[in-house]
Amino acid sequence: MVNVPSKLRAHGCAQDTCKNYYFTCQQCDKRYTKKGNLKVHIRVHAGETPYTCTQCGKGFYQQGSFIVHMRIHSGEKSYFTCQQCGSSFTQKGSLKVHMRIHTGESSFTCQQCGKCFIQKGGLKSHMCVHTGEKPYNCKLCGKSFTHKRSLNSHIKIHTGESSFTCKLCEKSFSRKESVKKHMNIHTGVKPYVCYQCGKSFTQKPTLSTHMRGHTGEKPYTCNLCGKSFSQKGNLTIHMRIHTGEKPFPPGSAPSTDSIRLPGCRFRPAPRFLSC
């Protein structure tokens, strides 16, 4: 329902806009200075998408979004180009957000770890790291993911789109870039170097985890006792204290002699003899 302030009608404003009063959405309290903008916004709650692409069937509640989408099919070139790196965008707002990369502007900051993001969506996605939330679920196997891109890559396993396979271990990937990064494990190439201590790694996520040792960042927080950890695996192990989970039945836990990790060598502990 459109909430038109009675004072707006009382003071004789003949237009559907006024600088001193707002049109408020009854469902989310979002306010607009123009009645037409509120009507368009209401479509979000109603699920109304009056603008439908005849080529792919995708629907839009705004005409502007529909026009921008049609450029994908028509092959029409982007209009907004970054003067610093040459990247092009179909929307002026997208270019504006992109410019923050060059200016160093980070408008959205995580209150828990201080990490900054140039987009609100990036911060929202990052917060799942702290909360442990995995909002993206695979409808085929039930597995859940923190990020939508991770779910999209996972779905390709079911659809058979994982067409890029490692020739050495036959592991499949949905993206060619992922295979290239994976090959670092076999070749021993370590392109990711810590600028503080010089240590190098085969994978970027491993470097990110290592950097937390220098920064002291602990993004994984227990929602029951508030204790924080630098690695997700440590939080998972910690949670067993609260849940009482015992991953190994009594007497079946593997001994340290039977555990071998890639790249690790185990040496027997020194024995001290008493005099």
UniProtKB/TrEMBL annotation:
Main location class: nucleus
Subcellular location: Nucleus
GO biological process terms held by the UniProt record: regulation of cell differentiation; regulation of cytokine production; regulation of immune system process
Keywords associated with the record: DNA-binding, Metal-binding, Nucleus, Repeat, Transcription, Transcription regulation, Zinc, Zinc-finger
One MF term in the entry's GO annotations: RNA polymerase II cis-regulatory region sequence-specific DNA binding
PROSITE patterns: ZINC_FINGER_C2H2_1, ZINC_FINGER_C2H2_2
GO-annotated cellular components: nucleoplasm
SUPFAM superfamilies assigned: beta-beta-alpha zinc fingers
All residue ranges annotated as the C2H2-type domain in the record: 23-50, 51-78, 80-107, 108-135, 136-163, 164-191, 192-219, 220-247
Top-level taxonomic group: Eukaryota
Family assignment from sequence similarity: Belongs to the krueppel C2H2-type zinc-finger protein family.
Name by which UniProt lists this protein: C2H2-type domain-containing protein
The species this protein was found in: Cyprinus carpio (Common carp)
